[in-house]
């Protein structure tokens, strides 16, 4: 064991190209872990906020009061609150124009909420493509370093008259470290991407369901207002 291979020594004695490959893999791993912690916090908060807002929305609270409460806060609304504010604001704007039919009001409201939905999903999916990229290319980058290191080891082996395993082992070991580092960078990135993508999909479904239910509520309100106006005019 005294003559065993030291991990740090293998990295330091590796060829320049293999060291660059290792450095790139370390950089990708650090960046992916930073994104993992960031996305986990953002997506978890989005799921909690969505559940909290839905409870308040379905509690029977007046929509105008809820709108004023959300818009009175500092900062832009996010998640379901963004969809609600976008839809209610557009609904109120169209409702002031008495010439607009119920269908046009709901169509405009629905279109506004779809735009807000697209923006919110885009925020949630931010940086997930980087995790997917790291997960897919890191093993190949590590494999490239491994192939290069083994190639150099065998080239050096061919220059000596009597080859032994002790002579070729360090070169092969340092080359295999690149593959190990590639897997170390790829596995967490792939696992995190799959989990986050699934959670974002759940949130998107929740947002769409809320959008449709909210649109139905606004449609009923618009229809009731239209009937009242017809009775008054009659």
TrEMBL record:
What is the protein's name according to its record?
Tol-Pal system protein TolQ
Keywords assigned by UniProt, alphabetized:
Cell cycle, Cell division, Cell inner membrane, Cell membrane, Membrane, Transmembrane, Transmembrane helix
Q: Which gene encodes it?
A: tolQ
Q: Transmembrane ranges?
A: 16-37, 128-151, 171-193
User: What taxonomic classification does the UniProt entry list for its organism?
Assistant: Bacteria, Pseudomonadati, Pseudomonadota, Gammaproteobacteria, Alteromonadales
Q: Does the keyword Transmembrane apply?
A: yes
Q: Does the keyword Cell cycle apply?
A: yes
Q: Which PANTHER family is this protein grouped with?
A: PROTEIN TOLQ, TOL-PAL SYSTEM PROTEIN TOLQ
Q: What does this protein do?
A: Part of the Tol-Pal system, which plays a role in outer membrane invagination during cell division and is important for maintaining outer membrane integrity.
Organism, as annotated:
Pseudoalteromonas aurantia 208
Query: What is the recorded membrane topology of this protein?
Result: Multi-pass membrane protein
Q: Boundaries of each MotA/TolQ/ExbB proton channel domain copy? A: 94-207
Q: Where in the cell is it found?
A: Cell inner membrane; Cell membrane
Q: Which domain of life is it from?
A: Bacteria
